[in-house]
Amino acid sequence: MSEALCLHSYWRSSAAYRVRIGLNLKGLRYEIIPVHLLRDGGEQRKPAFAEANPQKLVPVLQHGKRMLRQSLAILEYIDEVWPETPLLPATARDRQRVRALAQVVACDVHPLNNLRVIQYFEHEWNVPQPERDAWVRHWIEEGFEAFETMLQNHPATGDFCDGHAPSLADCCLVPQVYNARRFGVDLTPYPTIVRIEQACLALPAFDAARPERQPDAPG
Amino acid sequence: MSEALCLHSYWRSSAAYRVRIGLNLKGLRYEIIPVHLLRDGGEQRKPAFAEANPQKLVPVLQHGKRMLRQSLAILEYIDEVWPETPLLPATARDRQRVRALAQVVACDVHPLNNLRVIQYFEHEWNVPQPERDAWVRHWIEEGFEAFETMLQNHPATGDFCDGHAPSLADCCLVPQVYNARRFGVDLTPYPTIVRIEQACLALPAFDAARPERQPDAPG
Q: Has keyword Coiled coil (chains A, B) (predicted)?
């Protein structure tokens, strides 16, 4: 698997952030191809990007000639092709829990707060910014309340969401906490989430994936 | 794995519908525990359901004493524990594609149109029904446009989303087409989606999972 890896990414996209973490945890080299989601109506909506992803969304991981879409499916692929430093635990039962945690964020929080959704409110319904921001916070708080409970109630929770190494769940959680801070969510009710986020960000793989470390981040 | 399987389900929940299809494809016996999402403010929000799922969402698959949450994570679990009649193809590359198709629906269409989201618009923003319905159709059309392109552009597409047997992608697609019809989406632009939906519904596993066949469906 010596084919080149290129990640179509935007510094502030939390789905791209997940994949950057996964690639870094595996120690893989990859080129970042920045896709500016706001400039000029959004580069992801240009015909040039349609071959990369008919969904007009980042991230896309290009592996040789293959275009891989959907961040969780990309992370599972990375984990299967490069099995060292696994992103999923060893048993079906534990994998189920880690995937479910990842999906709390990736299915039930993030898609509701994605750029295209906020733009719909702004352009179709004229929802004012304070109400749009309250919407964003609402779904983060709903999701984090469940996520925190699922961590606190389970013996598998360790330094990270599952035991003592980062997993798919941590790849999703850390970017979502970044968004929560950005929108001013009070994180006091989620002590386990914040503790795990801090443990993750202390690792070079997570640190290098941070939005502000990306080549397309504003200077 | 002779422990009993119980599915906390609602007849019209498309996430529960996915899991019913998966269980049926595996030929597994399971008991349906109906959770009425509308009655009395929603049974999923009662304290009695919190142990089953802190997210207050269906489906939950109970396997012995384990509570398994998140439909895609449940389907992956079923596929790992009962590997016969696989829901995922044999290679990492093909699995990536099938998971990505499933996630187009499960991450980028369905969560935006979920009951709790529509209720937020109704109760917090007083969005009238015609605009709520237009919102639902908008995200289905966006998702289906990409899904159709991803099917048409790929040689792996067969009678089903991947070749000649149903997969995780079909488990997600068929319930989403059910929702599309319910909300009056014009399906003419998506001939491949409709062809695959019809092939699926001709199979007993899909037919028995239909909303109207469920014990909690209105008479």
A: no
